[in-house]
């Protein structure tokens, strides 16, 4: 669910995309839709279709998640700093 929510957040920011709040739908005009789906067929399920359970998904996963270089997976470590427990402070 987390990956799906991240993908939806990214797609909402596509150039030319419009968000239809009433239908929970990412809307692209025909030309943008056709070109994007040709290049990214896996995104078709989220474009120009109602995203079922969108509000619940954003409530659980969050609608303002980090993407790109700042994104962390749930299995990523919170820190890579090594602490020497034997050293006196």
From TrEMBL:
It comes from the Eukaryota. This is Myb/SANT-like domain-containing protein. It comes from Aegilops tauschii subsp. strangulata (Goatgrass). The lineage of its organism: Eukaryota, Viridiplantae, Streptophyta, Embryophyta, Tracheophyta.
């Amino acid at each position: 669910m987390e990956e799906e929510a991240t993908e939806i957040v990214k797609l909402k920011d596509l150039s030319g995309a419009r968000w239809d709040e009433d239908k929970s739908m990412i809307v692209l005009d025909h030309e943008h839709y056709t070109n994007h789906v040709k290049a990214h067929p896996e995104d078709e399920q989220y474009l120009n279709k109602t995203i079922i359970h969108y509000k619940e998904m954003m409530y659980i996963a969050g609608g303002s998640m980090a993407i790109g270089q700042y994104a962390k997976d749930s299995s990523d470590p919170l820190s890579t700093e090594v602490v020497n427990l034997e050293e006196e402070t």
